[in-house]
Structure formats: C-alpha cells, structure tokens
Amino acid sequence: MPDLHLGLAGVGRIGAMHAANLATTPGVGTLTLADADPARARAVAAALPADGAAPRVAESVEALLRSGIDGLVVATGTAAHPGLIRAGVEAGVPVLCEKPVAPDVALSLPVLEHVAARGGVVRIGHQRRHDAGYREAKRAFDAGELGWLHAVRAVTCDAAPPPVSFLATSGGLFRDCSVHDFDVLRWITGREVVEVYARGSNNGDPEIGRVGDVDTALAVCTLDDGTLAVVTASRYNGAGHDVRLELQGSLGTVVVGMDDRMAARSAETGVAFPPGPPHATFAERFSDAYRAEVAAFVDLVNGVEGDLCHPADAVAASRVADAAQESLLTGAPVAVRPLEVPVA
Q1: Domain CATH for 57
Q2: Confidence band (pLDDT; 50, 70, 90) for 2?
Q3: 174 contacts: CB under 8 Å, gap ≥ 6
Q4: Are residues 98 and 141 in the same domain?
Q5: Which residues pair with 230 in a beta bridge?
Q6: How confident is the model at residue 228 (pLDDT cuts 50, 70, 90)?
Q7: Cα 186 from Cα 189, distance rounded (Å)
Q8: E strand segments, 260-340
Q9: Over the chain, what is the mean pLDDT?
Q10: For the chain, how many structural domains are there in total?
Q11: Contact 114, 120 (CB under 8 A)
C-alpha cells in the first residue's frame, strides 16, 4: 500500500504526542499539522524525527482539509470536536478524534446522527483499549478463564491536579478522568451500566471546589446483569500516576496495572514489589498504547478494521459519566438511560 498523507488538527500536549507517534508509524509518508496557533504547529513540525514522515504545516484547519489528506486526527480542545468530525466526514476521510465526541451527551447525539447519515468512518481515542494489560484482561474474561464476575474495581489517579483553569471547563472529575474507566468497563464486560451512585470530596486545593469540581470521587456502578463495579479517581496521588483495573471472577482474578512501576508499595514484610520508579503521567503510562492507537488508525485508513472505539460507544461511556456527575451533585443513585441513535 502507498504511504498515507495524514492530517493532525491541534498540537497541544496530546496533539504533539500524536504528531511524534504518527511521524514514526509505518505507512505514514506525509504528516500535515494545523493549530489555532500556526507558530506552535511549525515548532512541533520542526521537532519531528528527521527520518519520519515528511512534515508540513497548514495555516488553518480548512487548509489542512484541502491539502489532500487520506485521514484526519483531531486533538483540539473539546469544543471544536463536533465541527471537525463533521468536516472530516464531509471531506470523505476517516477521522480519529480524541475523546469526547462533544462537551456533553446532548451535543454528541447530532454528531452521531450526522456520521451515520453520511456513512462516515469515525473513531474516538480511548487509548486504554490498546494497552497490553487491558487487552489481556479482556482476553482472559472472554476466554472464560475468570468465570463469572462478582466484582470489578477501576482506579485512575493523577499524581497532581492539572491547572484549576482547566478543571473549570473539564466537566468534572468523572467526565474528564473516569470516563476512560467507564469505557473499558463496557468494552471488557460487554455489559451496560444501568445505575450509578457517586460521592466526592475536596481535601486539596479549595479552588477546585470553587470551580465546581472535586479532587477525589467514587462511583458504584450496577451493570445490567447485576455485577457491581467500583470506579475511583483522584487528583492527588502522591505515589505517582496510578491506573488499575481488577476483575474478580468465580474462577480467577486479574489485575491491570500491577507492573514493576505500579504507584504503590507493599506493606508486607520482605516484599520489595514494585522495584521500579512509578509512572509520573498518563502519557508515560500509556505511551505504548498511544502508539498502537495511531497504528490502528493507519490500518483503518487502509480499510482494515481494528479495536478503535466507535463514536456511539464513546458517547455511551460519557452518558455514564454524566450520570455519575449528576449523582455526585444530588447525592442519590441515578439511572443510566440506554443510548438509542443510528450507528454508521
């Protein structure tokens, strides 16, 4: 197959990482970048590996879409996602967009309808689906090695909070952070979350509370077969970036994230696990998964389907996050309504 010409819209923190990964992914011959700040796009392009894809810079996203790209990766701010997804679909190219589809579920539904009506090829960036540990957990469960699940525990904890200015517009800890756990919970178990009961607390920077967020939260999720799952998140995990998933079954248990850089230490005498330094950030923890994700997108552009997240699945995870956020505010359990939209 000929080398592809891919476009990347947005070269902030995640976009710059995608640029470096795309530039060194086999099958990518040309990479054109665009950003609201063209100077930043030029700086990122200049920093790409010399032996990677040929870098170009478009002065606008509109120019990027006119440059003859074969596929579009969207890593802009969330508010721009709906318009760029639609633009990519109208241009007739496959699109990989960072989560979420839109700032909220209500704004996401017209996007799903547009994609379905136009027969668009759109996938959403939930990189944990490409992490080796999560994939092995899914394989073990699908193979029946765990038996039936009696409990699921998911953890996502940052070592330190992002700027309060970001939290003021992030939609809350469940939407910003735990939505990844809600996605893999659905993906691995194949079940739907039907009810969420959430609680949260603020013991860190009081400014986080003043912008309407919490720094620590817990959600008890009931799946449609009665299985219980507990999803926890925190902005203040001084031990390091901690992401884990525990599947406890009638025949066995597996734990994702129990590696030699796990952000925890054993309290048992004579146990030195884990021996390595903890992961510092999500980008470090999931570096391999992010590379695998863009490689899967290259395959998709070439017509080979993989495990990239469909937009409807991403919105379904966001709907669980919305319910958790509502429960956090009301103090009551919240039912999660099924998502009923056309799928391309």
Answers
A1: 3.40.50.720
A2: low
A3: 198, 217, 219, 233, 321, 324, 325, 328
A4: no
A5: 153, 220
A6: very high
A7: 6
A8: 334-335
A9: 94
A10: 2
A11: yes
Helix (H) or strand (E) holding 254: strand 253-256
Domain hosting 36: range is 4-128+290-310
Q: List, for residues 249-265, the tens digit of each pLDDT value.
A: 999 999 999 999 999 98
Question: Mind spelling out the 3-state secondary structure of 3-17?
Answer: CEEEEEECCCHHHHH
| CB 124, CB 311: distance < 8 Å | yes
Q: What strands lie across the sheet with 122-125, from one edge to the other?
A: 54-57, 28-34, 4-9, 71-74, 95-98, 122-125
Query: Within 10 A of 338 (CB to CB), how many other CB atoms are there?
Result: 9
Residue 112, both tokens: 């799903």
Kindly state the helix (H) or strand (E) to which residue 312 belongs, with its residue range.
Answer: helix 311-330
* Residue carrying the six token digits 């920093």: 47
Calpha distance 11→113 (Å, rounded): 28
Percent residues over pLDDT 90 in the chain: 86
pLDDT exceeds 60 at position 143? yes
Within-domain flag for 271:
yes
Whether residue 101 sits in one domain with residue 156: no
Q: How far is the C-alpha of 223 from the C-alpha of 191, rounded, in Å?
A: 6
Amino acid residing at 166: F
CA gyration radius, the chain: 20
Cα dihedral across residues 5, 10, 11, 17: positive or negative: negative
For residue 90, pLDDT over 90 is answered with yes
The answer to whether position 238 is within a domain reads yes
The strand pair at 71-74 and 95-98 is best described as parallel
**Residues 336, 84: Cα–Cα separation, whole Å:** 28
Q: Mind spelling out the 3-state secondary structure of 183-236?
A: HHHHHHHCCCEEEEEEEEECCCCHHHHHCCCCCEEEEEEEECCCCEEEEEEECC
What element of type H or E holds 154? strand 149-157
Of 126, 196, 124, the C-alpha closest to 343 is 124
In this structure, the number of other CB atoms found within 10 A of the CB of residue 35 comes to 27
Other beta carbons within 10 angstroms of residue 8's beta carbon come to 31
